[in-house]
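Expect chain and fold; see below:
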Amino acid sequence: MARVKIQRPQPGDAIVNDNPKMYEDYKAREGDKALITMHTVPFEGSVGLINLLTCTRLVRKGYKVTLLLYGPGVLMAAETRGYPNVGDDAFPGNQAINNQIKTILKEGGRVLACRFAMAALYGHREEDMIEGVEIIHQLDVLDCLIEHQRSGALIIQTWTV
């Protein structure tokens, strides 16, 4: 069988053309809101980190952003992650989720975590969550969605198991 030989790509080589960008680089209009909900397990695929990066990008575009963590999503806001000590990187990227949530909070985003999921499902206390994360009643999960829907917010919902 004939084999085609081509030069191996080297670090820094572009293997795709990332221009031109198809859409305008939209920024939030006055009063624009966004709600990102996550019912997903941290580190089980890329969806959690990708949504956190999207959340950060929306904050930087000027949206009033709320990140709502419920079900296993509350685990993303656990401040107790790390090995062998809290806050240590057990492997490269081990603190990526925590660091991204802290960036969202620092840059003006709002992060909510469902109290029921924290305590009943995972045994976490409010003190176990990243500082600045707001703990909400389980019945507020739906009302948060309704409030954002009624305000015309951009809503991105992720639900995985």
Summary: Residues 47-60 form the longest helix (14 residues). The longest strand covers residues 33-39. The chain has one domain: 33-159. The chain has a mean pLDDT of 94.
